[in-house]
Amino acid sequence: MLKVLTILVALIAIATYGFISYLQRSPELPKIDYERWWGKGQKVDEDESVRPFKIEFNDTMIADLKSRLKNRRPLTKPLEGIKSEYGMNTIYLEKVLNNWVEKYDFKERANRLNQLPRYKTRVQGLDIHFIRVKPKVQGVKTLPLLMLHGWPSSSKEFQKVIPLLTTQRTGYDFVFEVIAADLPGFGFSEGTNKPGLSGLHIGVIMRNLMRRLGFNQFYIHAGDWGSNVATHMTTVFPDEILGYHSTMAVTSRPYSYLKLFLGSLVPNFVMDPKYVNRVYPLSDLFSYLLRESGYMHIQSTKPDTIGVGLTDSPAGLAAYVMEKIGVCTNRDQTNTEHSGLAALEQEDVLDTLTILWNTNCIVTSTRLYAEGSNKEAKIVDNIPTKVPTAVVNFRYEVVHMPVWMLRDKFQNIVHCSFYDYGGHFAGLEVPKELADDIFKGMAAILEYRKRNSLNL
Residues in domain Epoxide hydrolase N-terminal (predicted)? Predict the structure, then answer.
C-alpha cells in the first residue's frame, strides 16, 4: 500500500511539474506585418508630413449639442435610498448636463487645450493626432517619452501632467520630451473601417509614429488600453523601448493566473500585508469585477449596438461615460450621488465628453474591446519582456497585480510604488504625484540600464 501511495504521489508531482512547465513556456513571436494598411480602401502612397493641428468646437456643433441637451426627455429619478448603486444618479446627472449647456465655455476650453502644440500625421493609412512638447532646457538629458491613454479618454488625460514632465527639476539630470498620442479611433485620431486593429497592431502604429518623428528608441508611460498597447510594444520591440512606466501594468500569461489563485492561500506571504486587500480575498475581487464589468462585455460583443444610442444622445453618452469614470476613480463611492466623480474637476470630465461628441468617436473607441485581443495578440501576451519597467499603484486603479505575478511578464521591474489615494485617471486627479513617480521610475530605469551597461 505504501509503495502504491509513493508511486501515486510521484505521478502527481510529475504531472504538476509538467503542467506548470507547460504554463510557463514562452512561444515564438508571431509574424507581424509592420506596414499593414488600416486606411480606407487599398493601400496607397501617403503623405508623411507632420501637420500642425488645432482643436475647434465650432458653433454648429455647439448649437446642436445644446439643443439635444435642452430637449432631452425627463430622466427617471433614482429609487428611494439609492445613490449610485444602480448606475448613474440622474439627479447628479441633471446638474452636470445643465452645466454643460449653461456654464461650460466651449471656446475657452478649446483654447486651453490648444495651449499645448498639437499635430497630425498619416501612419498606415490613418490620421494620428498627438501632442508634442519639447523642453526648453540646457545641460541635462532629454528623454523621448510616448504617453498612451485608455478608454474613454484621449491625450487630454495628460494635459496637466505634460508641463510637469517637460520642466527641469532638482535632483534629476534628465527631463522629458513628451509625445502624447490619441489611439486610433480615440480623440482626434482616425479610426479604421477594417477589422483586426488590436492593441498589438496599435502598438505597431505607435512605434511607426515615433520613427516618423525621428525616435528609433524611446520610453513609454501608459495606463488602461494604453498599457495593453505599450506592453505589446515592449515585447515586440525590446531594443527600441528603453523603459516602460505604467499605472496599470498587467500580465496575461496563464501561469500568472495560476499564481493569483495560489497566492490566495497565503496572501500575506506573496504581498505586503498593507496592500493585500487590493487583491485578496478573491471573492471580493470577483464580486467587484462582476459588478463593474458589464460595460466591458457589451463593448466586447456588441459595440455598434450600444454605440447608436451613445452617438445620438449626449445625455446618454454623458451618463454612460461618467458612470464608468466615477467608479474607476473611486469604486467605494457608489453610495454617493457623484459615484467618485467629485475627485475630478467637472470641466475635465466635460472636456472628455465634448471631445467624444465633437469627434463622434464613441463607436470607434469602444470597438477596441471587441478587436483588442486576437490570435497574434494572445501569443505576444504570453512572451515575457526584459525591458526595464516601473509600476505605480494608485489606490483605486481598476486592476492591481502583485509584483510576483507581474515578473512573469515584466522580468525587470526596477521600481514599484504605492499610494493610498488616486484612481484610474491619475493624470487628471493627481497629476503631481503621477509626474513625480514617472521621474522616479525613469531614474530607476536609467540606473538599471547604466548598471547593466545598456545604451541610455
Answer: 50-158
Are 367 and 196 a contacting pair, CB within 8 Å?
Answer: no
What cell does 74 get? 425627463
Q: What percent of the chain has pLDDT over 90?
A: 86
Residue 151 near residue 183 (C-beta atoms within 8 A) = no
CA 404 to CA 343: how far, in whole Å? 31
pLDDT tens across 274-324, in order? 999 999 999 999 999 999 999 999 999 999 999 999 999 999 999 999 999
CB 185, CB 112: distance < 8 Å = no
Is residue 320 within 8 Å of 310, Cβ to Cβ?
yes
Secondary element (H or E) of residue 365: helix 362-371
- How far is C-alpha 401 from the chain's CA centre? 15
Query: What is the rounded distance in angstroms from the CA atom of residue 118 to the CA atom of residue 438?
Result: 22
Q: What residues are labeled active site? A: 224, 369, 424
Nearest to 155 by CA among 125, 207, 117: 117
Which residue from 110, 300, 106 is spatially nearest to 188, judged by alpha carbons? 110
Q: What are phi and psi of 120, to 5 degrees?
A: -135, 150
334 in Cβ contact with 83 (< 8 Å) = yes
Give 106-159 pLDDT, tens digit per residue: 999 999 999 999 999 999 999 999 999 999 888 899 999 999 999 999 999 999
Block residue for cell numbers 432631452: 72
Residue spans of alpha helices (H) in 47-113: 59-70, 90-102, 106-113
Query: What is the distance of C-alpha 41 from the center of its chain?
Result: 29
Cell numbers at residue 437, please?
Answer: 513617480
* pLDDT at site 6: 53
Contacts of residue 7, defined as CB under 8 A and 6 or more positions apart, other chains included, come to none
In angstroms, how far apart are the furthest CA atoms of the chain?
86
What's the predicted TM-score (pTM) here?
A: 0.93
Cα separation, 339 vs 344, in Å, equals 11
Cell of 428: 487628471
* Helix H or strand E encompassing 374: none
